[in-house]
Amino acid sequence: MASNSKRLVENSSRYTFRPGETVSSEPDLSFPAAGELNSWHGTVILSPQGFGASRNQNTTEVSTAESCEWGAEGALLGLVDPKGGVQVLDAADGYKPLCQVPALVGGVRNFYFSPLGNHLVTYERWEKDGGNNVGVWDAKTGEMRFSFTLKNYNAMTWPPLKWTAMETHCCRMVQDAVQIMPGNCDRETEISRIEAPGIMAFEVAPKGAGAGGAGAPHVALCIAEWKGQPARCQVFRLDEPKRATATKNFFKAQAVTMSWNNTGTAVLVKASTEEASTGKSYYGDASLYFLRADGEETSLVASADGGPLHDVQWNPTQDEFVMLHGQHPCSAALYEGRKASKRMDFGTGHRNTIRWNNFGRFFTLGGYGQLKGDTDFWDKPGKKLMASTRMECCVVCGWAPDGRHFLTATTAPRMRVDNKIEIYDYLGSPLGRIEFDELLLAGWRPRPRGAFQDRPPTPGRTREEPKAAAKPKATAYRPPGARGGALAEQLRKELGSTAADGATTATKVGGPAPVPIHLPPGASAADFVKQASNPSTSSRNARKKKAKAEAKEEAPQAEPAKPAKFSPPQRGEAEKPAEKPEEKPAAGEGDEVEKKIRALRKKLRDIEKLKEKASAGGSLDPLQKQKLDGEAEILQQQLGLVGRSPVRYNRIGDMGAQTLSRSLKEHGMQILDLQDNAICRLGAEMLYANCGRRLRLKLSCNSVPSYQLVELEEQLEARREEERQLKEAQMKAGKGKKNRPASGQSKTALSKPGSQQSKSSKESKPSSSQRRMSRPDARIGREGERWTQLFVFLLQRFNLWPKSSQVPWLRHCSI
Prior knowledge:
The chain is of the alpha+beta class. 21% of the residues lie in helices and 26% in strands. The protein contains 14 helices and 40 strands. The strands form eleven sheets. A five-stranded antiparallel beta sheet has the order 25-26-27-28-38, with no helix packed on it. A four-stranded antiparallel beta sheet has the order 5-6-7-8, with no helix packed on it. A four-stranded antiparallel beta sheet has the order 9-10-11-12, with no helix packed on it. The longest helix has 31 residues, at 706-736.
């Protein structure tokens, strides 16, 4: 067998496939040796140097597909023997036996190798009083490292041990915690723990999030919902197990699946339920969440309200992923891994499976299971659909290690009939087919990195279409009612193909719209492209640049300017320093700052509610206490963001300015930059009227003339000066109200209770009834007091003023 071979496994024979040669019908290798085949059913191994079909043998069958597993880079092959143990074969040395791993309880049900092939983990069915049912073994010698008990075996608890890509760390989920061990599983060294009450699943990043994989890797864990509290996904550094670097809360999480990108900087969390709350799906609800390992970004990528989540897969070499989401025909799109923003659209179709090749260049979108099996082959760098074909009854599929061949298989027990293996090239052209009576597993043999090179599509090569079938012979006429299956045939014709809706090229999100398939009468694709490139429909900045360029071209060349005569400046005028040009923030920076400010304010409001709850005597859980402890850090982040420009270059007008002016007094900013918007005089007046005593506005490059802005600024300064003076006067008046002496009296006389003035004031002090009657505002009010003062003035003018003893309340009336 050549060194560039690729292999595929079912249950115990090897087949070889060479492109361009005839298909072999016999296996070239079986496991174990031919003399021992009476105890094996047979494992199929396929390599792209020829393959053929297996033959039925009178042997003992392997009951499940989990009885065969490849090691890292295809160097090891594990097979479950009839005694219940695992036999490890050296695939690099002619499949010679390396070691034999015995059973612990009653027989191995499932097993797997560590990423570098140093360890083998086996699982056996748990039995009460039967001892440990999970063993960790040395894959080369068969020596046991340690064992433990696993009672609940499901998709979230298997595999129980997870290593980083280079086996520097190993993590294991235990009761309410995650244990962090060294990669060699040395139990004598110190084992750290991440406390996580109610943990339901965890996933270890392949490497550190630093440049080139530097730094400690992260681990993501999910805590289940409990007593009305939401489920929670947290990310920890393996060297700092006490502090979470990222957290995301969500509901509807009966089961979760987590997947890291190849750089270990972001993780996708799929939360699902068994029953759909909306009743639109038989398979429950599913939502997809995105978390950055450093906590800078957490978001909801796909919600259950938008339809079912069929599949999502990371690119194996780049920080991006493809997702299939929505009701059929569902949409297929590419998202970047920094903020989970949509970058590319691949149209819609009846698809539910995504498969990337090892180099991240080609990927397939297939519709299998209950769908017809239509499969699209996409070239991601070229952004084009290379070919589409139909792969019926496909159960398992995958790309070969060379990235240019694709395998599909129909296996049992999903399908009991028509079990087969089919091989296609990257354009969907069929290359060979193997049929089986019963096929349990099929898959390519892994190969080490560097064994194959990434190659683009061959220029000028297209898919070879299969030859058209011969026309059926003419038969006697039969009426429609006697033909049988008339209704089923009619339904098939109405359903037609489930191919994508005319999408042959990927559309970049935010770029120019593609040419529509159906154009108006008399229009051509060139007219549409010309209309799309028209500056009237392009961005505002592009129109500005083009207008400036045209004005510069049309303007005549001006004569060279003569040097201006020197004129001394007038006295009293101070030389104004040259203003430094302000740096224009990058596009979208203001929006990001405003989003972060709103998020921090929401966190502070939640903290205030928790403080009120604690002051009222309520109990706080550990998560709420952790939020209270982080208040200082949130305030520090808010101080760093306050003062930046959140609304610059947003094209807000007078209505937006009116809405913004309502919240200016509560805003913590000192400078509000509203340059280059569409604010007119009315909006500017509202903003200046509500900007308070400290806020400074920048309204240049708007629809307000500069001289009006100067007037509004002067009015604002004058108003602020009046408020300042009024406040100072009120403060002075408040200090002098206490113990203020009357005119003609000294402070000494007022302070001595036994003085003559004090005695006379006591003697002339009116009673309570006289005081009530003597108050003019008690009987006639303020308006009446003014008329009373006018009446007193007239009496004095005509010498008709009575004595105060006759009218007591006139003593308090004066002008």
